[in-house]
Amino acid sequence: MVRDRIRVEQGDITGQHVDAIVNAANSTLLGGGGVDGAIHRAAGPELLDACRSIGGCPTGEARITMGFNLAAMYVIHTVGPVWVDGNQGEDDLLANAYRSSMELARTHDAATVAFPAISTGAYGFPLERATRIAVREVAAALEAHSMPERVTFVCFDAGTAEVYETIVAELPG
Question: What is the distance between the alpha carbons of residues 150 and 108, in angstroms, rounded to a whole number?
Answer without folding.
Answer: 14
